[in-house]
Amino acid sequence: MPTQSTPDIATSASGAFGGQISRDSLSQQAYTAIRKSLMRSRLRPGQKLIARQVADELGISVTPVRESLLRLVSEHALTLDDRGTVMVPEVTLERCKEIRDIRMLVEGEGAARAAAGITDADIAALERIHERYMSTELKHNYEAALAANEDFHFALCRLGGSPVLFRIVENLWIQFGPALTYLYDEGRQPFVGKTHGHVLVLNALRNRNPEQSRQAIADDILIGGQAIIEKLTTVTTSHTEPT
User: Fold this and answer.
1) Would you list the domain boundaries of the chain?
2) CA–CA separation, 171 vs 29, rounded Å?
3) Exposure winner among 10, 73, 141, 175, fewest CB in 10 A?
4) pLDDT per residue over 151-177, tens digit each?
């Protein structure tokens, strides 16, 4: 009886794993990882990014990392100092306020659009993200809390159903994310004694009220960012006082 031959997976044009990973692909993966770290507040303003150190952490060679860093410099997400070292930009008080105000407008539009077509399942998903945020903040796991906060804002924007708006929000968070590392400096917790902004957003969404949702997320950004404004105001004042 003839034996049925087993297909030789190695003979397919692309291989079992879809083909070899190109250097361009590694560069894109490194770019995505660094970009995400900026958005998720894993990097602090003024932090130096040494290509070799980043490459070691990502488990890849230096060249694609260097390419991704320079790409982010060209996009003004990172900067170069006088010695050519790549750094996370410092955030000035004026720039912080500008980005905050634009976020209030753009994310407000996203929340209003979301409220118009949101489902109970969507609201339940946002509630779970907020519960994770509160749980990690209570445990003083601030890195996880910042990540959950981003998840809440991004999930809300996605529900707005506008890819263009979402890309704008992403770009704003790339610039603003590192400043969020100041949020919990010196034990600050912006919503202590107040109804959390996420709760106001959820209430507005349950009402299917676009304008209430717009105002709620704007208030969340305004009140939540007050600790950052206070931190940068202190830094600015200390730099301008005569010695």
Assistant:
1) 22-87, 93-240
2) 18
3) 10
4) 999 999 999 999 999 999 999 999 999
